[in-house]
């Protein structure tokens, strides 16, 4: 009790950024090794799994960012137009 030192926690790191192409390549290599060794899996399940992975990796992220950018542009234009209209109203109310 007095002479036992506590053990530090084990290090566990989860990646924030994952290279999907690299994982896909590893999966294809593993699949190729299984086919050459004779340990095949069902073709339909593999085909569905690869379709999901490829579809997930080819999402149009750039288009999503562009739509956000254009939305912000329209909001900025609407706000600036509103401020200009308020200044015009204030100007004419002070003059008249």
TrEMBL record:
Region (Disordered): 29-50
Keyword annotations: Membrane, Transmembrane, Transmembrane helix
Positions of transmembrane segments: 71-95
This protein's record includes keyword Membrane: yes
Protein name, per record: Ubiquitin carboxyl-hydrolase
Species: Prevotella histicola F0411
């Amino acid at each position: 009790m007095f002479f036992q030192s506590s053990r530090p926690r084990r290090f566990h790191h989860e990646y924030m950024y994952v290279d999907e192409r690299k994982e896909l390549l590893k999966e294809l290599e593993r699949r190729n090794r299984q086919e050459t060794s004779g340990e095949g899996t069902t073709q339909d399940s593999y085909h569905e799994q690869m379709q999901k992975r490829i579809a997930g990796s080819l999402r149009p992220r750039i288009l999503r960012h562009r739509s956000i950018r254009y939305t912000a542009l329209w909001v900025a234009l609407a706000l600036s137009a509103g401020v200009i209209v308020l200044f015009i109203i204030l100007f004419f109310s002070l003059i008249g």
